[in-house]
Amino acid sequence: MTPAMKQHAARPAAAVIDGIFRALSDPTRRDVVERLSVKPASVSELAASYKMAMPSLLEHLKVLEGSGLVRSEKKGRVRTYELAPDRLKLAEDWLGQQRKLWERRLDQLDAYLLQLKKEGLK
Fold first, then answer.
1. pLDDT per residue over 111-122, tens digit each?
2. Global pTM value
3. Full DSSP string of 89-106
4. 3 state SS of 45
């Protein structure tokens, strides 16, 4: 397998990345992710912080869990959510790849403009 094939095989499917960014597009869901980055929390603990109906909060949690950003466990009547940092790493890696691409393009533009300036001074 060539290095390019290995890199392509290691990339997450576009649908996974889309789901992560879709989940993070809502400020409430981003806030829940921030809260869960501190420590796991039960649904009632999370609900205490938001002025919204429980079904609305549960829908946000469902989207976050569907994207893989959080996971939950139910013990008795208490469901506890925790952050799943692996999915955040996928988003971070994707953004890093985009940043590298644009940095390389800007470096090429910079080199081209310097070349033009140098040629104009002759």
1. 999 999 988 876
2. 0.76
3. HHHHHHHHHHHHHHHHHH
4. helix
- Kindly report, residue by residue over 56-103, the tens digit of the pLDDT: 999 999 999 999 999 999 999 999 999 999 999 999 999 999 999 999
Q: What's the half-sphere exposure (Cβ side, CA atoms, 13 Å) at 94?
A: 17
Q: Is the pLDDT of residue 3 over 80?
A: no
Contact criterion met (CB below 8 Å) for 60 and 32: yes
Nearest to 81 by CA among 94, 68, 93, 96: 68
Cα separation of the two ends of the chain: 49
Take residue 40 and report the two structure tokens written for it: 């796991």
The structure tokens 């609305």 sit at: 56
- Rounded to an integer, what distance in angstroms lies between the CA atom of residue 55 and that of residue 32? 15
42 φ/ψ angles, rounded to the nearest 5 degrees: -80, 165
* Half-sphere exposure in the Cβ direction for 114 (13 Å, CA): 6
| Helix or strand (DSSP H, E) at 80 | strand 78-83
Q: For residue 83, list its beta bridge partners.
A: 70
